[in-house]
Amino acid sequence: MxxxxxxxxxxxxxxxxxxxxxxxxxxIRIKVRRLVTDYxxxxxxxxxxxRLLKKIEWSVRVKLxx
Length: 66
Hints:
The chain is an all-alpha fold. It has helices at residues 5-23, 26-42, 49-64.
């Protein structure tokens, strides 16, 4: 038996929810904050890492559908 269209959507939905929940963990937030801060410093960009972190979280949630 192969994975059907409805089952594929359901599986993607389950994975999307799991990933959206992972974004809220402290460990992931720390890693993302570090990546954002390092990127800003490397490219000499004067922007607030926390503000960008919130925008990135929102963008990822929208892409995941949550």
